[in-house]
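[step 3/7] inverse_fold.run input=structure_tokens len=386
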């Protein structure tokens, strides 16, 4: 993944223990963060979590992580990322936990929901001294998303696909370390079996050479085709028969997509949803079906001529991007996603200065649904932090 970012000092997270004492101030953590206090009283299935509620479990997980020599041996920024991920790994449970009619307690979807919550909190800097840097924020969010993978990967119909996909956006050695602390921080009868699963997960990742770096496909096109076709061999070097390129822009309103296009690809045709809305006199808050249909037809006209172009819109969710990518690939195009990121306050300021500004509450809603693109989605993916 190509990445543009400004140099930044080593990042840390509030209250992250440091050597040589490695002391953790849990009272200050609980007093500082409302999202930690919201875990208080959230029940868990006693079969898997006899230790108590989500708050009790989270504290035990963090204490377990800090006690691990493998964590202490990491560079300070990696320790901070994992410490934050341990604090946040169950942040989705307060909104996802349900007590069923038979008394069974579930929290389905809490890891995915937790990723969104973690990203929003780290991006806006809520209750932190400052917003977190893009790279650190995304590593933490992905760790929250995949913290259960070492315990669940064997349940997938294709375990290797689940692992290779996750390795494209998060380090598997960090995922395994977080999972180890997660098991240490619970009281259950099958703990030994869970530790064995984590050990097998580590072996699996090492066998596929993706334990501390992304799985290295033969080339970008082979990687894209592997994740598009369930029966493909990850070692197979696919022949690239694409004939033109579509640059798919992605990012919140006000992040600077138009400016980036002007500076980098000013000579290419642009299919812009904002331009189509203006042409059709349709508000961003109205029904967008006719806008999208019109833009797609403009794109088809270009693709019939095998002409490279830019699709300029927010494209915040994976499913939205996938629908477009399927269209572009059907015409023989390769796809390069350009995801733009900036400090949230800068985005708000830029949006306010736009002629057609997007209401703040709409941007907040968009942030809550944002899925940052990863390398499983397109032939090329570039994260631009500016």
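[step 3/7] decode complete -> sequence:
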């Amino acid at each position: 993944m190509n990445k543009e970012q400004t140099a930044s000092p080593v990042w840390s997270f509030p209250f992250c223990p440091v050597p040589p004492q490695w002391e953790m101030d849990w009272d200050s953590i609980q007093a500082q963060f409302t999202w930690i206090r919201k875990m208080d009283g959230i029940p868990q299935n006693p079969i898997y979590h006899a230790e108590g509620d989500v708050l009790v479990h989270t504290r035990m997980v963090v204490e377990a992580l800090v006690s691990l020599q493998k964590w202490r041996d990491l560079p300070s920024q990696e320790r901070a990322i994992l410490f934050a991920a341990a604090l946040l790994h169950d942040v989705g449970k307060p909104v996802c936990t349900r007590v069923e009619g038979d008394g069974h307690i579930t929290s389905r979807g809490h890891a995915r929901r937790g990723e969104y919550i973690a990203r929003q909190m780290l991006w806006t800097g809520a209750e932190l001294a400052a917003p977190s840097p893009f790279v650190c924020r995304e590593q933490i969010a992905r760790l929250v998303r995949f913290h259960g993978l070492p315990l669940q990967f064997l349940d997938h119909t294709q375990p290797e696909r689940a692992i290779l996909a996750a390795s494209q956006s998060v380090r598997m050695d960090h995922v395994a370390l977080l999972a180890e602390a997660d098991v240490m921080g619970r009281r259950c009868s099958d703990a030994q079996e869970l530790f064995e699963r984590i050990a097998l997960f580590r072996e699996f990742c090492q066998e596929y050479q993706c334990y501390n770096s992304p799985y290295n496909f033969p080339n970008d096109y082979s990687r894209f085709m592997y994740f598009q076709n369930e029966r493909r061999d990850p070692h197979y070097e696919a022949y690239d028969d694409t004939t033109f390129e579509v640059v798919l822009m992605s990012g919140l309103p006000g992040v600077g997509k138009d400016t980036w296009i002007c500076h980098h690809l000013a000579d290419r045709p642009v299919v812009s949803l904002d331009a189509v809305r203006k042409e059709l006199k349709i508000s961003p808050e109205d029904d967008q079906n006719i806008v999208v249909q019109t833009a797609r037809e403009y794109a088809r006209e270009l693709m019939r001529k095998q002409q490279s172009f830019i699709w300029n819109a927010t494209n915040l969710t994976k499913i939205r991007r996938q629908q477009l990518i399927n269209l572009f690939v059907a015409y023989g195009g390769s796809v390069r996603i350009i995801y733009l990121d900036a400090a949230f306050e800068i985005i708000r300021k830029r949006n306010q200065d736009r002629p057609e500004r997007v209401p703040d509450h709409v941007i907040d809603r968009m942030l809550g649904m944002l899925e940052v693109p990863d390398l499983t989605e397109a032939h090329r993916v570039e994260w631009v932090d500016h």
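[step 4/7] annotate
Residues 244-385 form a domain with the Rossmann fold fold (CATH 3.40.50.300).
Residues 104 and 218 are 47 Å apart (CA to CA).
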